[in-house]
Amino acid sequence: MKRVAVLTGGVGGAKLVLGLQHMAQPVEISAIVNTADDFRHLGLHVSPDIDTLLYTLSGKANRAQGWGREGESWAFLAALRELGGEDWFALGDSDLALHVLRSARLGSGEALSTITGDFAAKWRITAKVLPMTDDRVATWLDTDVGPLEFQRYFVEQRCAPKVSRIEFRGADSARAAPGVVEAILGADVVLIAPSNPYLSVDPILVVPGIGKALRASAARVIAVSPLVGGKAVKGPTAKLMGELGIAVDNDAIAAHYARLIDGLLVDNGDPVTPGKIAIGRTDTLMTTIEDRVRVAEAALALASE
Amino acid sequence: MKRVAVLTGGVGGAKLVLGLQHMAQPVEISAIVNTADDFRHLGLHVSPDIDTLLYTLSGKANRAQGWGREGESWAFLAALRELGGEDWFALGDSDLALHVLRSARLGSGEALSTITGDFAAKWRITAKVLPMTDDRVATWLDTDVGPLEFQRYFVEQRCAPKVSRIEFRGADSARAAPGVVEAILGADVVLIAPSNPYLSVDPILVVPGIGKALRASAARVIAVSPLVGGKAVKGPTAKLMGELGIAVDNDAIAAHYARLIDGLLVDNGDPVTPGKIAIGRTDTLMTTIEDRVRVAEAALALASE
After folding, report:
1. pLDDT (tens digit, 9 = 90+) per residue, A254-277?
2. Chain B: nearest CA to A81, how far in angstroms?
3. Closest CA in chain A for residue B40
4. In chain B, which residue's Cα lies nearest the Cα of A107?
């Protein structure tokens, strides 16, 4: 069976992994997930991208909302508000179980990778879900309102501040989590999900062991562009590219991943200047499950060229 | 206004304090609450007796159930179970807000007494709710199945194990929380609630600063017997007394508090041998709010004799 490693952030990457899972020809999937968005909130360790993977791959994700669980209830948040607790980050009643149990197990010395693997097994997820590292890495943004930790920027401030610099604190000394290097070295294809290259994929790439494994791997490396019609499907990618002085187009994406990828999959409607990198095309907007399978198959087809 | 300090465990004491609050003649109330039942569960600091006071005095308690909140939902616990988390201690979705916020604030260095005071203020509770101590005291029981921390015995094992010895770990070196000694020294009357004398009241009495304040106080000290018809209204009091070789009657209760109290309020139907301690009588079963007011008034009347 073909082995595919996927470097992924949250929503876009989870859709691609789901597409890989539903292909007619089954593949062995290792999702290597960004944890630089992880943060402590009310004393709880929240791992937004891992949770999005777990919810999406187990069929529990709230698709309309784009985050959290389907059929969620909010009694905790209402009670927290009564008591004067911080309510800018919405923690649903069911969602809390992940955070509370993860925090308790981390507190008793277990590794994030072990806990994540157990959760995935409990929910019968067949793909391997691997945090990029068990060490603490945190995305901080220099903005026009001062330095902000990622979730403060993303959720509390709704991406409104202007970003001048992105920093992944702790990344230099972080070790790849167990299974990550093996997944990359053993892969036939490495996919870079259509997640935010600067905020969601870069923190994975800067973990030294992961960068080293990617350079050493014989796998074809294919990125799926996060742009559709010259815009990001979701989140602050396009706004951020503008603020960082980067053109919002696939040439910029190709340049960003230049030394790493063998091919870039772009949307049918989007231009890209021919260069050294192989270009694949499909409709990359992933709304239905068929869309996700089509994008996954197109990415693997590009790898086989 | 008459100042009343109440030494209290959970349910029975909360009813008495509610009775004091609803008397025609208002009194200034300080509830000094047992915290030796506190424990960490899933990394969260749970304070069962404080929570019972907070819920009861703010009108949020689930009266039928005897613990937790009215109108509680259980999505968290269901999700926790899916993930293989320990579910023997039922944490409701709304109830979790207390535990999560308290744990987060304790984790950032705040004192339990400060946090409890803030929660009581948010819920407009007029009585002072004071944890007996901000230090860690833990009730452990020697039983026929080995040593058990209180909640394991009380909730998980449903009081089934036979108890041979009770220990309050940390009590010897615990300091009374801010306001506790002042409440006792400034009180006109100190009431001992009809809580379990051995499990809920003793841990308060053994905190050195509290014992010393009670000996120094000029207040009349009145205990309300936890026995009604020769049985405890709730919980393991009678079973425990039997296992510890203590007769289940008011003479034993009077003897237990002998050097501390000036009077004992007992149920109309229960015998007690005349002795040095003044005896008061009323129907001590507290089902309705009128019952609670009657018991509170009878206890204060006994103090005035």
Report:
1. 999 999 999 999 999 999 998 889
2. 9
3. A104
4. B43
**CA–CA separation, A130 and A31 (whole Å):** 6
B75, B84, B92 member nearest A94 (Cβ): B75
- In single-letter form, the type of residue at position B260 comes to L
Q: What is the pLDDT of residue A178?
A: 98
CB contacts of B79 in chain A (<8 Å) are 93-98
What is the assigned CATH class of domain B3-39+125-304?
Answer: alpha beta
| Cross-chain Cβ contact A98/B83 below 8 Å | yes
- CB contact under 8 Å between A75 and B80, yes or no, is no
- Domain layout of chain B by residue ranges: 3-39+125-304
In chain A, what residues touch B55 (CB-CB under 8 Å)? none
Asked if A78's CB is within 8 angstroms of B122's CB, the reply is: no
Give which of A19, A32, A37, A1 is closest to A192, Cα–Cα: A32
Q: Evaluate whether B93 touches B73 at the Cβ level (below 8 Å).
A: yes
Cβ of A84 within 8 Å of Cβ of B118? The answer is: yes
Nearest-Cα distance to chain B for A174, in Å, is: 25
CB B42 within 8 A of CB B88: no
B118 CB-contact burial (10 Å; exposed 0-12 / middle 13-18 / buried 19+)? middle
- Residues B233-244 have pLDDT tens digits of 777 888 888 899
Q: Which of B43, B84, B93 sits opposite A73 (nearest CB)?
A: B93
Distance CA A270, CA A266 (A): 7
> CA A129 from chain center: how many Å?
11
Average pLDDT over residues A135-149: 96
Interface test with B, best of A50, A76, A123 (most B CBs within 10 A): A76
* pLDDT confidence of residue A167: 97
Decide if B264 contacts B277 (C-beta within 8 A): yes
Q: Is-contact B232 B238, C-beta < 8 A?
A: yes
3-state secondary structure A22-86: CCCCCCEEEEEECCCCCEEECCEEECHHHHHHHHHHCCCECCCCCCCECCCCCHHHHHHHHCCCC
Confidence class of residue B148 from pLDDT cuts 50, 70 and 90? very high
**Chain B residues touching A94 at Cβ < 8 A:** 75-76, 78-79
SS3 call for B144: strand
DSSP state of A228: E
The pair of three-digit structure tokens given for residue A134, joined into one six-digit string = 């068990």
CATH number of A3-59+112-304: 3.40.50.10680
Which pLDDT band holds residue A9 (cuts at 50, 70, 90)? very high
pLDDT-based confidence at residue B183 (cuts at 50, 70, 90): very high
Cβ B101–A42 below 8 Å, yes or no?
A: yes
Whose tokens are 């604030």? That residue is B105
Q: Is the dihedral of CA A232, A238, A239, A241 positive or negative?
A: positive
Q: Do residues A227 and A246 lie in contact, with contact meaning Cβ atoms separated by under 8 Å?
A: no
Tokens describing residue A196: 């935010």
> Which residue in the set B43, B78, B98 is minimally distant from A83, CB to CB?
B98
DSSP 3-state assignment of B4?
Answer: strand
